[in-house]
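ZP: hey, is the coenzyme A complex queued? I don't see it on the tracker
AM: it wasn't, my bad. submitting now with these inputs:
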Amino acid sequence: MVVVEGPGKKKKPANVTVRQMDVDDLAAVFHLGENLFKAEVAPNLYRTWDEYEVAGLFLEDSEYCLVAEMDDRIVGFALGTTVSKTRSAWKYGHLVWLGVDVSLQTRGIGEKLFHQFKTLMVEDGVKILLVDSEANNLAALRFFRKMGFGNPRQHIYLSLNLSTPRRAPSKKGNGNRAAKERSSS
Ligand SMILES: CC(C)(COP(=O)(O)OP(=O)(O)OC[C@H]1O[C@@H](n2cnc3c(N)ncnc32)[C@H](O)[C@@H]1OP(=O)(O)O)[C@@H](O)C(=O)NCCC(=O)NCCS
C-alpha cells in the first residue's frame, strides 16, 4: 500500500464504472477494505474498519457512498459524509474511506471515484473537503496532493491498553523523590 512509484511507464487506465453504492454492495466493500486496511500496514485504519463502519455510513449518507465496478466486480469505493456546524454557514465534507483493489491501483480508479465524490459534495454546497491519512501512507498522501489537498495538520493518536492492569507507582520511588525534594529545599 505504501509503494511509491517513481516516474515510469504509465499504466493503462482501468475501464470502470463509478456508481452509487447499493445495499447488495455492502459485503463486497467490506471485504475489499479488509484486504486494504491491514494491521501491519495501516494499524489505525485496521482498528476502525468493520462491518458497522460500512453499514453505518451507508445508512446515514448513502448518497455519499460510491463504488467502482469492473466486469460486475466491486474494485473500489469512496465513503463519506458531510458535517454542518450550528452558527456556521460552512458545510464540510469528509471523505472517510477510499480504497482501490491492490491489483488495480495506479490505474486511475481512485481519481475517478474522487472526482465523482467531489462533484456530489459541490452540488450539496460543501465548501471544504477533509481527508486524513496515516503519516506513512505515502501513496495516499501523494494521491490526495494530486487531487488538490494541502495544508496538512498533524494529529497524534494515543492508545491505552485496558486489558493489562496498570501498576501503581512504587512507594520506594515516591519516597526517594520526596527525600530528594526535601534535601534540595
Ligand atoms: C490511495 C488510493 C485510493 C489511490 O487509488 P489509485 O486508483 O491507485 O490512484 P490513481 O491511479 O487514481 O492515482 C492518481 C494519482 O495519485 C498518485 N498515486 C496513486 N497511487 C500512487 C502510488 N502508489 N505511488 C505514488 N503516487 C500515487 C499519483 O499522483 C497518481 O497520478 P498519476 O497516475 O498521474 O501519477 C489507493 O492507493 C489505495 O486504495 N490505497 C489503500 C487504501 C488507502 O490508503 N486509502 C486512503 C486512506 S482511507
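AM: back. Residues 1-7, 178-185 have pLDDT under 50 and may be disordered.
ZP: great, adding it to the tracker
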